[in-house]
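Dear colleague,

Following up on yesterday's call, I've attached the two folding results inline so they're easy to grep. Please treat them as preliminary; we haven't cross-checked anything against experimental data yet. The first protein's sequence and structure tokens come first.
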Amino acid sequence: MPKPKVIVVSGSDDAFVPLARDLFTSIRDHSYKYEFDLGLLDIGLSDDNRAGFEKQNIRVEKVRAEGDIDYPARRIWEAERPACKVFTAKPFLPRYFPGYDIYLWLDADIWVQTHDAIDALIEGSAESNALHIAMEFDRCYSLFFQKPQVWHMYHEWYQACFNDDNVTAHMTLKPMLNVGVFAMSKNAPVWNAWQKIYADILQRTPQLNSKTIMLEQLALNVAVYMMNLPYVPMPASYNWLTVLAMPMLDKKTGMYVEPLPPHAPISQFHLTHKPKEQAQKIACIGGGFIERPLLYSARNT
């Protein structure tokens, strides 16, 4: 069986360039089971920054000014938050980068510590047409156990976006699938379902706010759970959400690890905490702390 043609894609505007550079550097510092190309969605790059990525052999595709999904509030949203163009582009990755068998998406504020996640996501997507994606739920994410109001937050998001009691009741207690990291084949049925549900919601959503900002993710969750589409839940360490749990540092190995025993290494970090580049107080295995930004480029400082 021939090896699949794979592309690993992210997206960036000028503000996210330092993080995107960190991401691509971290990717290239490892060896993988499969070969793959690198791609980047340009959602507001200067000519110099765009050229800088292209010189690194990264395929850069500019997101269309009109967007992949037109909707009544589009101009208002993009004026308020231009980077929101990446939300509507994600479900259309095969359109931007045609000719690939597998598409693996990584948000620009992610970096790679080990090869395991990328290898497993590609291998799984080569074997089936299921969506491969991690949940926003893990034993280390204490918020879900100590502050159950997080489920109320999900309830408010679904109700605000769908305005449908049946959808809200069905979805509220489902573990949220996080679209910061995902992989699937070009033939996965999730693509079309995600596009259609997302487009429908956008036609009915007048404002971008704290409850509707997650539209892109909610649409994918509804597509998967309510249409019973194939998906494979991947380990949380493949998309470790730092806003929910900071890692610990194993000084013996230099690796960031899960904060609960047996302190397994984390494969990919998603810097969902703010501000992302500020030094964090990170506990060490065996005691003590270090203070440094949780960036790939800051690992050896």
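Below is the second protein, in the same order (sequence, then structure):
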Amino acid sequence: MITPIPSLNAMPFTIDATTRLGHVHLTVADLDRQIAFYRDVLGLKLHWREGTTAGLGTDGEDLLRLSLLRGARRVRGTSGLYHFAILLPNRRELARAIARLFSLRYTNYPTDHVITKTTYLDDPEGNGIELYADSPEDGAAAVVNGNYIVRHANGDPSDGREPLDVEALLSELTPSDRLDAPMPEETKIGHVHLHVADVDQAMHCYHDLLGFDNQGLVRAYRMGMVSAGGYHHHIAFNTWAGVGVPPLPPDARGLRYFTVMLPSQTALSRMVERVRQAGIATEQTEEGSLVRDPSCIAVLLSTFK
């Protein structure tokens, strides 16, 4: 299901370069089990729990919120979350996170994207997660004529999906490093990757309407990427679940919304007014304005705390 966004005749709009992502909010079927996973396996701290909703993160703000919907079912073949990505501040902290997963025998898939070092896993309810650290010193990547081109720092080409040298990464740790230590305060949501119904409509929404930088449509991969401030990507989107897929039904587990954090109330008001001028409905909440992209994925527009 696609809800087209009208063409915009206004002057080009660019989102503030300091914009970043805030918390991701998931609907879950078993709140206790999900809290235990994100606390004990990933190393987030339980910040609060009120009734059927909880917030987790580091010593700073919430990175994740979980809301219980009893009987929520797992539904595939819809728009929604492919994965959300937790950005660790350096390789050592990524090494600690991966070593923790290994020690718990929790299935994960370490991967070297050259510009990032990462591992992929699913939570107990099937939500995709990426844990990663940026590594721009190792090479560069760009979309050229619709192709994703990756090169190592020495110029050698890469497909951007190499096996991670886990032994080298774990050498960042010392015997005194505790694997059960919580994730550090500098940890944040680095990006979200979405299943959408149409990549061109998604690009129109996130680039032309919301003003994220267009980092390229990779036609061969059926995906696109946008960012703020020159980052490789804050939002990626693909049609790997199918072109024209319907939205996630209201009784399903999965993504409730993700958060885009603007640097000021002025920037937020400007964004919301632009969305309204495009004829898109907004829903006011205590933390900002909720809007939906063409694939009915909810985005909370908010400000830095």
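For the second protein, one point worth flagging: The longest strand covers residues 20-28.

Best wishes,
A.L.
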